[in-house]
Amino acid sequence: MKRIIECVPNFSEGRNREVIDKIVAAIAAVKVNVDGKQEGVKVLDVDPGEATNRTVVTFVGSPEAVVEAAFQGVKKAAELIDMRKHKGAHPRSGATDVLPLIPVSGITLEECAELARALAKRIFDEQQIPCYCYEAAAFKPERKNLAVCRAGEYEALPEKVVDPERKPDFGPDEYTDVVAKAGAINVGARNFLVAVNFNLNTTSTRRAMAVAFDVREKGRKMREGGSLTGKVLRDADGKEMWQPGTLKGCKAIGWYIDEYGIAQVSMNITDIEATPLHKAYEEVCRAASARGLKVTGTEIVGLVPKRVLIDAGKFYLEKQQRSLGIAEDEILKIAVKSMSLDDLKPFNPHEKVIEFLMEDPKEMAEKERLVRMTCKGFAIETASESPAPGGGSISAYMGALGAALSTMVANLSSHKRGWDDRWREFSDWAEKGNALMNEMIALVDEDTAAFNKIMDVFSMPKGTEEEKAARAQAMEEATLYATQVPLRTLNTAFKVFEVASAMASEGNPNSVSDAGVAAIAARGAVLGARLNVHINAEGLKDRKKAEELMNEADRIAAAATAEEKRILEVVEEKIKA
Q1: Which residues, 6+ apart, have CB-to-CB distance to 457 below 8 Å?
Q2: According to the model, what pLDDT value does residue 61 have?
Q3: Residue 447 catalytic?
Q4: Is 421 a catalytic residue?
Q5: What is the rounded CA–CA span in Å between residue 569 and residue 487?
Q6: DSSP 324
């Protein structure tokens, strides 16, 4: 899974578009080296507010790129914004007021917290701008609360930077000219916040508010007699008593929307681990029903990580006792329909999911040139005079088809009449087969890319001894890569036998021949990949490594032949039964 984080800095300028554009340009211009490849960030949204005199910028990318872009955005904001002249309706403490890092995929909140702390330290070390660390990145328990870090706002900084109890986590011992101009930054790490509205079949704001009070973590004030209008109850210390709601990490209110002519429960889910979107939807539905209301649909505000919808889709498939080993697009469709995300207007995951918005269409088209073709187009491309795609890509595709057939049998078995109590068993096999299919599909284009790396070496200069040495080194590295890719194909294709075998012996007997064809395709993939390992390994100067790779390929190929024979015997026996 690709590592992706989001950053949502709030800059204390919402009126001067020229200043805003320069800050955003500094963020967007960042390029860093990640595993030998230059990566930047993608700016998803720029939202200036005139009354607040504040702009919220949303950008995403790899952790390395996002952290560097955040640093450069802070630097540019400090150059262009003078906090001594700033006025606005929103609380603020610096030119860059808040700077949260948010995990999207492939990275934990704890890892983001470490990145945030390191970023705060770097900002002070290199830019002399003081930083408080808040939420998951906080060094002190009380500073998990942003309001504590920002208490007194910019105007209180002269006192705070010299107060041992209130001074920044990273900052000077005195009030400097830099602090006077740039203020202080609140650098943090938090989980992704999902903003969502639940549509109700009522126009009553009061009833929508009652549902919101039922479910939000804060709950409602406790009153005498349990009424809505009775006297507020207080504890022995005179503090108001509250009845907590049912959903952790959720804030909610009820309101009426003129545009739609309905009331909604408007919610921010601040902890999607404790309360996933589908759990919030189910609980709001329950609470609404208890008050004679019905949730007619759901409106996601802004963007969400893909896993929010994938988890929801799988949740509803499980409730239906349906296989989870289906295509990602189908899982997303189940999520959309189950929560009526298209109730008020069409819902397109490719316009709401962060990972989809990050994709570069041109880059994806180049990376997946072959697998995006039709079957006919792929066959014609293979038959052309071009040496690629060749046997390696075809082997990977055969493996993908073997995995796909095995998955099909598992899905048919999961949905077979009379086998309802076994749906989970076959769903697990379908998920395993689907994952293998996706791995094999990726290898179709990767094998051709490996061949192209070798072709690229031939265009390298060889006029001097240094150029010849560099060319020879590049050729050895490209050849090794071209040998390792079919070996990955071989290893992945061999795993298909496990699923094919289970489906031949335990799956829907009406599809047993499909399990047999899956085994044949998997063996073809293994033997084809073995040939590519051998022919590429012959070009390696490191003969020890070459022998090692070829021996591994031979061993797996022999095992594949035995597995295919065993599975086909089971298939033949079942066909004759």
Answers
A1: 471, 474, 475, 478
A2: 93
A3: yes
A4: no
A5: 27
A6: S
Amino acid letter for position 314 = K
Active-site pick, 214, 271, 445, 447: 447
Cα 483 from Cα 477, distance rounded (Å): 10
Q: Which of 86, 90, 415, 534 is catalytic?
A: 90
pLDDT of residue 52: 84
- pTM as predicted: 0.79
Percentage, residues of the chain above pLDDT 90: 76
Q: Between residues 214 and 386, which one has the greater pLDDT?
A: 214
Give tens-digit pLDDT for 458-484: 888 988 999 889 999 999 999 999 999
Cα dihedral value 99, 104, 110, 116, nearest 10? -20
What is 471-537 written as a DSSP string?
A: HHHHHHHHHHHHHHHHHHHHHHHHHHHHHHHHHHHHS-GGGHHHHHHHHHHHHHHHHHHHHHHHHHH
In the chain, the percentage of residues whose pLDDT exceeds 70 is 99
Q: Identity (one letter) of the amino acid at 210?
A: A
- Tokens of residue 329, six digits: 């697009």
Number of other CB atoms surrounding residue 416 within 10 Å: 17
Q: Stretch 310-314: mean pLDDT, rounded?
A: 97
Quote the DSSP letter at residue 118: H
Cα 531 to Cα 540: distance, rounded to the nearest angstrom:
15
